[in-house]
Amino acid sequence: VGRIAADHALVGGHKGPVLDIAWCPHNDNVIASGSEDCVVKVWQIPDGGLSRTLTEPVVDLVYHQRRVGLVLWHPSALNVLLTAGSDNLIVVWNVGTGEVLMRMDCHPDTIYSACWNWDGSQLVTTCKDKKIRILNPRTGEVVNEALAHEGSKATRAIFLRHGLIFTTGFNRSSERQYSLRAPDALGDPIVMVDLDTSNGVMFPLYDPDTNLIYLCGKGDSVIRYFEVTPEHPYVHYISQFQTPDSQRAIGMMPKRGCDVSTCEVARFYRLNNSGLCQVISMTVPRKSELFQEDLYPDTLADEASISAEDWISGVDADPQLISLKGGYVSQAQSTTLTVTKKSNVLDKMAPKSGGPKTLSASTGGSAGASANGSPVTVNNGTGAGGGGSTSPANNGTQQIMIGGVSEQQFGELRTKFEEEFRKLKAIIVKHENRIRSLEATVKAMTDRGLTEVDGGLAPAAAASTGTSPSPAPAPSSLPPASDDGAPAQISGDGGGHYRNSTLEPDEV
C-alpha cells in the first residue's frame, strides 16, 4: 500500500504488457495472466509470497494470434480457464494438461467481457458490435443474443447467482446506464436506469452471498453499491463510497478473506492515479460480537466440485460452499499445480536430417531448447521419447551430443566465448575510464573560465568580448590522467590559446 523497493520481487515473465490477471478460485497459490505477447501464463506463487522475481511459469498456453485481454477461471471445474483475445476468439483450456478444450469464433469484433453462470454451464459475453450473447461453452453455440446498450463505448455483463444478467454500458447520448435482464428475454430488459454522463467504463463487482453489486467506474472517485431483490424496482440503490482520488483499477477479495469478527462484508484493493494501492473495507455496524448468520451465509470454498474432464463431458455441478463461522480454515490438501502434458504423436517420429537438434541422454523424454534457442529433442533410447539411441561410452556413462558437438568440445567453445567476453568487457572499461578522464578535463577547464575560441581555448570573458587577453598563469593543480596513463596538462602558447600536452609538470 506504499512505495515498494526498486528490487522488489515481481512476477515478470511476459514479453509485453500484462492486460488481465485472475486468481484461481480453487488454489490460492495459482494465478493466470494474459498479455500483449499473445501468451497466457499460469504461475505458482510460493507460500509466504515471492522472495525473488518469478520468471518461470508453470505452463504457457499458446493459441491466440493477437493480444489476450481477458482471463477467467471456471467457478466449479478444476483447472478450466477461459481466455479471450483481440483475434475475436474465446478459448477454453484444461490447464492441467495444457490443451485446448473448446474454441469459439462467433464474435465479429473485439470481446469486451465474459462471465460464467453459477454452475459454469453457460457463458455471457459482450462485444464491440453492441450485442450481448449467451453461449454454450462446450459447443460454442450461441443460445441467445440481443442488443445490449446503444452506445458505442465498452459494455460489460455478469451472471447473477439466480440466473439473471446485469449489464453496464452507455446510451446514444454517452450517458452511463445499467440494466437487469432475463436470459430468455435479453432484448427486453427488466430494468434500464441512466446514471450519469461520465466517460469511464463501469465495472460491476458481484457478491453472490448478499446479492450486492458494486459499480466501479474507471476514473471515478466513488464506488456505488446496489442490492438486487425479487421486488420492484429489483435493483435498489444503497449508498456510495467517496474518496478524493480517482481510481485506475480495482479488485475484490473473496469472502473467505474478509474479517467476520468486524462484520466486514467486502474488501477492495483499489489502484489510485497516484500509483498507490488503497484498501477499502465495507463493514456493517453491529454491536454484537456474535457470528452474524444473515451477513455470512455459506460462501464459495476453495475446492473444485468436478474435474475438467467431467465438465467437458457434460457434467455440471454447483460450486462447493463452506461456513465462515469461527473464521475460514483452508481444506485444500495440496497447493501445488501439476501440469501433465499429453504426449504428442510427432514426438515418436525419428528426427529428419536438418531438423531439430538431437540431445541423447539416458534420462530424457521431454523437449527443451538448445543454447542458441533452437529446439532440442531429448531421446531416451527406449522408443517412448522418439527415435534414436544413446551411445554408451566405455565407462558405462552416456555421451551427450548437442548439434553434432560432443560435451568436451561444447565446454571448450564455452570457455573460448567466456574469454572473448572478458576481453570485450576490459575494452569497454578502458573506454569508460577515458571518457570520464576527458569529462573531468573539460570540467576543470570550465571551472577556470576557459572556453573555445578559433579552434583553441581562451578565458570565457575574452570569448564573450572577442578580444585576446593576456596569457593566463599555468594551473596550480594537474588535470586527471589521459588514456595512456600520462598526466594530461594544459600548456599555453603565450597568446591566450591553450592546447593539450603530455609534458612533465616542471617542463610546463
TrEMBL record:
Region (Disordered): 347-398, 458-508
SMART domains: DUF1900, WD40
Residues spanning the signal sequence: none
Entry coiled-coil feature ranges: 414-448
WD repeats: from-to residues: 11-53, 61-103
Compositionally biased region (Polar residues): 499-508
InterPro entries according to UniProt: Coronin, WD40/YVTN_repeat-like_dom_sf, WD40_repeat_CS, WD40_repeat_dom_sf, WD40_rpt
Keyword Coiled coil: yes
GO biological process terms, semicolon-separated: actin filament organization
Biased composition (Low complexity): 360-381, 458-469, 479-488
Annotated SUPFAM superfamilies: WD40 repeat-like (SSF50978)
Recorded GO MF terms: actin filament binding
Superkingdom of origin organism: Eukaryota
Keywords assigned by UniProt, alphabetized: Coiled coil, Repeat, WD repeat
Pfam families in the record: WD40, WD40_4
Gene3D superfamilies for the chain: YVTN repeat-like/Quinoprotein amine dehydrogenase
Similarity remark: Belongs to the WD repeat coronin family.
Protein name: Coronin
Lineage: Eukaryota, Metazoa, Ecdysozoa, Arthropoda, Hexapoda
